[in-house]
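JOB MANIFEST
job_type = single_chain_structure
chain_count = 1
residues = 202
[input]
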Amino acid sequence: MSFSVRNHTLELNGDAVEFVPTTNQGGAFRPQYLVLHYTAGMTGAGAVAWLAQPASQASAHLVIDRNGNVTQMVRFNRIAWHAGRSEWAGLEGMNRHSIGIELVNAGRLIKVGDTWQNWAGNVIPADQVVEAPHKHGNVVAGWHAYPAAQIKVALEVALALHSAYGFYDVVGHEDVSRGRRVDPGPAFPMLSFAARVLGRGD
């Protein structure tokens, strides 16, 4: 399996990945950063359907499902609406400076009796729950784990994007919108992921 970028679209083994266009996008830009998010939902199809609707007022360049399936929604040289009010490295409004990837993941969970649930009441199996504090807080909470297959594909995609655009950094929504967002959260191995993408070792 080999990802690459051609004409600002993602290809897998030489063929374009599934592309579901959204009107929720801005003008042309040159990406300098990669920002990772979670969808706070349970399925890739649901995330794509929502981001394709004008009413969502949101989008991402890519959605990566839990099984590793990838859907592109915005070409990489066009602005996607994924970061909102944000800043990083002296830049404000990271939509204008970054590619956004949405990872299908329920996110921060709620303990209801003996079960963990997401905001919509979906029960998350105990073996898919990580209990940890967020790096910007000290309260232990439950978080939906990221499957190995999803992380593997996300890394391969990020490496292909970095090869094409030469990112200055790879960060989370929680970093560029600190105090407002908490994704992708402590269940995602952000430090090692960013280090591998940028060639800084493990």
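[summary]
The mean pLDDT is 96.
The chain has one domain: 3-106+146-198.
exit_status = 0
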